[in-house]
Write a structure and sequence with these properties.
3-stranded antiparallel beta sheet; globular; mainly alpha
Length: about 375
């Protein structure tokens, strides 16, 4: 299970960055639910600490078990997670019109979050055995497309467009890293362009509204555009140094919707300004570069691909969330890693970091 000699190779730097961002998350969640004497959900920061503790245990398991074991059982994990997604559609708990959670006693889990990491493991398992000097052919991409399509369809039915698109972005990033033949790439681009009208017709009315609101928030300032407008006001009013901790007026007066989850970056930006927001983005950038460095130093194909997939996962969640609250992307309900409140999302991202530490610790075995 765990070789004591690996302690000397433990990645304390990556763990330290993770702890710093998680601490910033708890502090910001406290402000989001307690500023101005707001007592609604005022204990969420305590629950977040509990989730972080559970995530830390998951992270420990992920770096203690040699990552080759995850390669060995990749498809077992994938099929198991697919089963949980199917179970959600039958027995899942309804919250705000969505059926995304499985209730296990007092605790609810969101299998779609777990699928992000499981998909990375499954694709790394497949691609590590099919790497080609001149890129992957269409025939070699059929199985990865099926691997992505099955959870994509199940998650869309919940419905959860944001998480479903995250799976596509992660898979696309890993596939491009492996390389695609020129002819195959042209076919994919053409098929994507042709299928856009079909995909638009498949979207639900509220999902279309989100995209139209992104293009022009002022078309419905008191309705669909309210979230983006209030978020942009909060970010802009923070200025250079911010208004101060627990002093953000958009937060205190509850103008910000979902301020402890999807729009927590707005709370942070209003209170800490450009300096605080820039620091958080810088810390994320360090984690991304750290992860790419781990992939670059690894000599095992599965380890490289898993590290690249995890970096893509963290990057896209950060990029989409920050772009969303700044009005640069549609509101799709993607959390900010390690900062936003959430049980399944927190545990999932910490397990992903644990796998990254795992590759970092054991990369010397393949040199």
């Amino acid at each position: 299970m765990f070789d004591r000699r690996l302690v000397a190779y433990f990645d304390w730097g990556l763990l330290g960055l993770t702890i710093i961002l998680s601490t910033i998350g708890v502090v910001t969640i406290y402000s989001a639910v307690n500023a101005g004497g707001n007592t609604f959900q005022h204990t969420l920061y305590i629950k977040q600490i509990i989730w972080l503790g559970a995530g830390a245990m998951g992270m420990a398991v992920c770096f203690m078990v040699g990552y080759k074991r995850f390669d060995q059982y990749a498809m077992v994990l994938y099929v198991g997670c697919l089963g949980l997604l199917a179970t959600v559609l039958i027995f899942g708990k309804h919250v705000a019109g969505s059926q995304r959670w499985l209730a296990l006693g007092p605790v609810s889990i969101q299998p779609s979050e777990m699928m992000k990491v499981v998909l990375i493991i499954a694709l790394a398992h497949y691609y590590s055995r099919h790497l080609r000097p001149h890129g992957l052919t269409l025939r070699e991409l059929v199985q990865p497309m099926v691997i992505v399509a099955l959870p994509f369809v199940l998650i869309i039915k919940q419905p959860d467009l944001g998480t479903a698109m995250m799976l596509v972005l992660i898979a696309g990033s890993m596939t491009l890293f492996c390389g695609i033949g020129r002819r195959t790439l042209i076919m994919f681009v053409t098929a994507g362009a042709v299928s856009l009208p079909v995909l638009w017709s498949m979207l639900k009315a509220y999902q279309k509204q989100r995209i139209l609101t992104f293009l022009n928030p002022e078309r419905d300032p008191l309705g669909a555009g309210y979230h983006i407008i209030q978020s942009k006001i909060a970010i802009g009013s923070g200025g250079v140094a911010g208004k101060g901790y627990l002093e953000g007026t958009q937060n205190i007066l509850s103008f910000l919707p979902e301020q402890h989850t999807d729009f927590i970056f707005s709370v942070l930006s209003e209170e800490w300004g450009f300096i605080g927001a820039g620091l958080v983005i810088f810390l994320f950038l360090l984690i991304l570069l750290w992860g790419l460095s781990i992939a670059n130093k690894c000599r095992d194909p599965f380890g490289i691909l898993m590290a690249v997939g995890i970096v893509a996962f963290i990057f896209w969640e950060m990029f989409i969330n920050i772009g969303m609250v700044m009005g640069l992307m549609p509101v799709v309900g993607v959390p900010l890693p390690l900062i936003s409140y959430g049980g399944s999302s927190t545990i999932t991202i910490l397990m992903a970091v644990g796998l990254l530490i795992n590759v970092s610790m054991r990369r010397f075995m393949f040199e």
